[in-house]
Amino acid sequence: MPESTLYSNGVPIRFSPDLFGPLRSGAGLPDDPAALRERLRTDGYLYLPGVLDRDKVLRLRGAYFSLFPDGYLAEGTDAEDGLFSGSVPESLPAYGVAGHPAHAFVRSAAFQEFVADPLLADLASKLLGGDAWMLPRQILRHFHRGSQLASRAHVDLDYMNALSPAPRVLTLWIPVGDCPPSTGSLVYLEGSHTLAPEEYEPLREKGDRPGDRRPISHDLELTARHLGRRWLWADFAAGDLMVHVPQIVHASLDTTTDAMRLSADVRFVRSDDTPDPRWLAPWSADDGA
Ligand SMILES: O=C(O)CCC(=O)C(=O)O
Question: How confident is the model at residue 224 (pLDDT cuts 50, 70, 90)?
């Protein structure tokens, strides 16, 4: 069970039954496109524990963390563990921009081979009901304790609204390492894919980024109470896979463990659709998309 108080962007949220509930597991769902689509339509997400090769996921974790300068990882630990030393070397460029390991890593053969796993494209094609392809802007997210940084509550559609027709896109979120809530897992607002955007519009007024209308809120308790819904969580492990629709409200929690939060999120669209042009180039943290 998570601690009694969790944080997102430094803002506390109590781990209580009125604010949190479990994600419904898709383990044991028949490998039948109609059943998978129906579950995705109902819940707005598919939580598929253990469908990826855990060792492969952990090797990817090790390959990434081995790119960091001395002093970043806890002394005497394996890169695969991804344990933060507590200090960031001054030589490290800002996260995800050219020169930072995450920027090179999403362009590396190791990462590209990993996301090219046919399991991902096959699943996306089944769910989208036609041949699907992965958008080249694939994001690596890495947070360490103490940063008080996490993803604000948002819907993906607000970041890719030039896709046509808009709703035919799916996000696959892959924890690259074990990721319980204290390590900064993703949480989903229950049933929020059925909300009209006007229902969460007022929350944007109270956000911590007044110049950016895309995030809904950095305050997860306020969001849950305003919309009368719980945040759904899971104790994610390396090998798990999440799929979500672009209308569902989701966010992430702050990392409070030595183990760092590492994940990849990739998006698939139908190959007969026109993709949002901002998603056609490899990701860089300063690309503004
Ligand atoms: O990993 C995160 O913190 C955010 C990921 C996300 O928003 C997504 O996969 O759509």
Answer: very high
**How much distance in Å is there from the Cα of 219 to the middle of ligand 1?**
16
| CA 57/CA 160 separation, integer angstroms | 27
Q: Do 111 and 60 form a contact (C-beta atoms < 8 A)?
A: yes
Q: Please determine, for residue 63, whether its predicted confidence score (pLDDT) is greater than 90.
A: yes
Query: Does residue 164 surpass a pLDDT of 90?
Result: no
Q: Whose CA is nearest to atom 5 of ligand 1?
A: 265
Q: Is 156 in the pocket of ligand 1 (CB under 6 A)?
A: yes
What domains can be seen in the chain, in order of their start residue?
5-53+118-279 (2.60.120.620)
d(CA 279, CA 211): 22
Is residue 138 within 6 Å of ligand 1 at its C-beta?
no
Cα of 177 vs centre of ligand 1, distance in Å, is 15
